[in-house]
Specification:
Number of strands: 5
Strand order of the largest sheet: 3-4-5
Shape: globular
Oligomer: single chain
Structural class: alpha+beta
Distance between the termini: 24 Å
Radius of gyration: 13 Å
Helix content: 25-40%
Length: 82
């Protein structure tokens, strides 16, 4: 499960297993396996990182250095924009 934010600022939890694909146009569109689409505030790369982290946690896999570095960068960018 990953936490995301709708365009109106409402946070929600999404089952990352249901993500079919993510697009940036320029808003971030998340398409689910059911065909439902939603627009979220988070950038495409951030949604992807959260989904990957969820899978790593689920399978108790260690994070590769590149994923950790990207996650750290995304966190820093988020803090700077706040």
């Amino acid at each position: 499960m990953i936490r995301l934010t709708r365009l109106d600022g409402e946070e929600f939890i999404l089952n990352a297993e249901l993500i079919r694909y993510i697009e940036s146009r320029p808003d971030t569109f998340v398409t689910l396996t059911s065909g439902e689409r939603m627009i979220v505030r988070e950038p495409m790369d951030e949604v992807m990182l959260r989904a990957v982290r969820y899978q790593q946690t689920k399978f108790l896999l260690p994070s590769p250095p590149a994923v950790r570095a990207a996650a750290k960068q995304a966190t820093l960018e988020k803090q700077e924009s706040a």
